[in-house]
Amino acid sequence: MLQELRQFFRSTDFVKALVITFGAAVPVSLGLWLGQVPYFLSVAMGVVLASGSDVPGSRKHKTVGILVSAAIAMLASIAIGLASGSLYLLLPVLAVLVFAISFISVYGFRASLVSFAGLMAIVLSFIHAHTGADIFIHGLLLGTGGLWALLLSLVFHSLLQRRQAETLLINCLRQTARYIYLRGKLTTESPEQEALQKELYNLQVKLNETHEALREVLLHERQSSGTSNYHRKQLLIFIELIDILELSLANPANYERARALFGQSVRVLLPFIKLVFELSAKLDDLADSMEQGHALSAEKDLEPLLQKCSDSIRAYVEELKLPDAREGALLLHNLLDYEEKLLQKISSIERLYLNLEEQQSIGLQSRESRQFITQQDYDVRILRDSFSPKSPIFKHAGRLTIAMLLGYVLGIIFPIQNAYWILLTIVVIMRPGYTLTKERSKHRLYGTLLGAVIAGLVVLLVQNVYLYAVLALVSLILSFAFIQRNYRTSSIFVTTGVIFIYALITPDAFDAIQFRVIDTLTGAAIAFGAISFLWPSWESLSIKGNIVKALHANRSYLAEIDRYSQHTSQNTTDYKLARKEAFLQMGNLNAAFQRMSQEPKSAQQQLMEIYEIVGLNHTFLAAAAALGTFIRDNKTEAAPEDLHLIIRSIDANLAQALQTLQEEAPQAETVAREELVEAYDHLEGRYNELVAIRTRELAGATYKPIAPGFLKNLKEARLISDQLKWLHTISGNLKKAVAELV
């Protein structure tokens, strides 16, 4: 518990919350000193609104985000102020502003935060109606608050950027460690197989998000300010972690085949599984050391475990005897190779952390590094293309507009105190998708009710304005700190903060509690009703697009593997870019399916068919990664023309699946069956030749050490043939599953 608290207080979220609170407190303090609190309160509101878009990224992106947030908040506030004199003018102005500002989020995550700032400015404009020149003064002061927020962001950028990079890297270490653990856990017989697989899919989504954030922070910063030794180490650790993810995705898939191959002799796998768990724990320990700033704990010697794995292979061969044991022994040798590589990668990260790594080039030029950052396109064309009833963002903007108008009208018709809380709840809860809106509704209600109970008890038991002031300030800091980390907890502190502020300025704070709960319930009901009945964006309507993108990414990844197999390309950048895109699209497909599975049963069209496709896509990528890592790390002896022919056939299956999904006429070039059989025969023939040589070498002996070079060739012949067959089978199953889906 103490360690978790220490981690929280050291986190970027908490430090950023302190900066925002300081930024808001300074103008309020000046207002108290000068006796002009209302005006300086507008500056404080501008700070809070503009700071929302200050998320991990380059200095340039942060600056533009804060300035645009401040400008939109200022203009929206002035527009509402000018229109508030007439209800007939206010309603259409409110509708146009809500739709236009929410439509901005079509440009991605940072744009959605800018949009949120504008919508919040609209809501806050209803707190106190300004008239005359005060409308413009209030708007300009909001903009001034945005400039003050920008100044604070620039001043604290280096500190926060360093903390953000550290936090993201620590999270990446923990997530990768968990991923390795889950891949090992899935090999054991367990009644939790389905739950573990679901967690693995969700973890892949989180890893993708962490990787994207790290690319944004590390690569953007490298371009803008050069590479310090500390920053260079972080980037090298990140590169190693991506390679570890590929290794982990690729190799443990063989465990499933091993369980089928070994049957009752599954105990032979136990040393390998134990070693995987130890490697996972090693990464976790490294994350702890990095987080606490301590030296690494005494390194556990894993050589005995590696030796146990080797002994397990020998015992298996001696028990089953050759040639019956050959298939299983080769598979176990490949698993041992994987775990040794994993240990090397983790040891490399440890050396980097200890600053013992020799000076070396990171291997990415500035131009190349830019390719790894997911660039957001801000072309006006995107707005034009999305301005259609078919666009999810267009539907969301329309739903939000109607919900806001309904909430405002209800606040006018019924005697609701502080009706703007209804609008606030709608803005905070409503998201383009049903699942996220549902989750935020539950968290908002939970947080509001629990916060109201806590604050109510404090107000009831203690009558001390100084205590209310301190608790209001603490609540404000914690609400900012948890807003990205845990929305439910943030809602609790938002509610307690609002109630303590009311307790400071009015003796009857219990009325505020009552109306706060009623307004939150009303806003949540409106938001949930809108997302359920107004042009609902069910995942079943859009998930085919995710499948299409995943198949395209798999084809690109497969094409890069093919280029390596032909020895025509050694372009690591192109390979890594294709790998990155394949991982991202797999994560996006997993996330879309998870959202779909949480929607109402009536909206879950063809759920099992899509689940099969998601599973096949994950398996295909694992098999492709296994083939890719082996070919990239080893100069293969297999005939390039045979590999190319089989990969072409696999690609043809994926292309046909894409054509079916996109309802296009068949265009994919197929490979003649005779050619395919001949290519497989060549691969099997090479393996059989090596087996024959080994058989003669044994000459009746039960066991004889095998030369490392010969073992490498034998493993290569078996692995490449098996992986290509496996990829061909999966791609064929994907083609059939897609045909059933359509």
From TrEMBL:
Protein name listed in UniProt: TIGR01666 family membrane protein
InterPro entries (alphabetical): Memb_transporter_dom, YccS_N
Segments forming domain Integral membrane bound transporter: 403-528
Membrane topology recorded in Swiss-Prot or TrEMBL: Multi-pass membrane protein
PANTHER family assigned: MULTIDRUG RESISTANCE PROTEIN MDTO, P-HYDROXYBENZOIC ACID EFFLUX PUMP SUBUNIT-RELATED
Keywords, in A-Z order: Cell membrane, Membrane, Transmembrane, Transmembrane helix
Provenance organism: Pontibacter lucknowensis
Keyword Transmembrane helix: yes
A Pfam family matched in the record: FUSC-like
Family membership: Belongs to the YccS/YhfK family.
Keyword Cytoplasm: no
Subcellular location: Cell membrane
Domain Integral membrane protein YccS N-terminal, residue spans: 69-330
A GO cellular component entry from the record: plasma membrane
Transmembrane segments: 14-33, 64-83, 89-106, 113-129, 135-156, 397-414, 449-481, 487-505, 517-538
